[in-house]
Amino acid sequence: MIRRLVDFALANTFLILAAGGLLLVWGLISFHRLPVEAYPDVADTWVQIITQWPGHAAEEIEQQVTVPIEVQVNGVAHMTHLRSLSLFGLSVVTLVFDDQANGPLSRAQVLERLAQVTLPAGVTPQLAADYSPVGQIYFYSLTSTNPAYDRMELKALQDWFLEKQFRSVPNVADVVGFGGLTR
Fold first, then answer.
1. Four-residue CA torsion sign, 61, 63, 67, 68
2. How many CB atoms lie within 10 A of CB 97?
3. What are 66-78's pLDDT values in tens digits?
């Protein structure tokens, strides 16, 4: 069997080289069309609802904000987990979805449900930025050897100039600055 295959390849050299060339071209085209990411996103789709109500205890937040939001968003399509955290003046409700969930559609469904929730006056829930836990990929720090730029000045540059520039980059969901002295 192998002898016949080798004899055929030696007798039809042009045909074998042409087939090899076609396979090479097909492989190169397939390689360029292959969607490869530097950081593949293996995390679940999730939506966070953040609600602030300053000056109120965690128990009040839990009873009057977190629980009504949980009741209203319960049953959103493809939701697998519902987690919440109530702190002094802050409620965070996290909805985790299965693999069939579509991120923008899930966010739209949550927004529809949030419009129906009854909360105390002046309390407005908001969706957190649409990002993935593996999406935090870039850290930087500002330093200066110029004595005119102390830590407070560098923090002002970060807050008022760099952060706005970074937010204007396509596909950047959020920019979080920390450290330094706030003016």
1. negative
2. 22
3. 999 999 999 888 9
Q: What does the DSSP 8-state code read for residue 84? A: E
Query: Rounded to the nearest 5°, which phi and psi values hold at 92?
Result: -130, 120
Point out the residues of the chain with pLDDT beneath 70: 38-39, 133-136
What are the tokens at 93?
A: 């409700």
Number of H helices, E strands in the chain: 7, 4
- Structure token pair of residue 181: 């002295």
pTM over 0.70: no
Beta-bridge partners for 127: 49
| Distance from the Cα of residue 73 to its chain's centroid | 20
d(C-alpha 7, C-alpha 13), whole Å:
10
Residue 100 carries which DSSP code?
Answer: T
How far apart (Å, rounded) are the C-alpha atoms in residues 166 and 168? 5
Q: What is the rounded (10 degree) CA torsion for 62, 66, 72, 75?
A: -100
Q: What are φ and ψ of residue 16, in 5° steps?
A: -65, -40
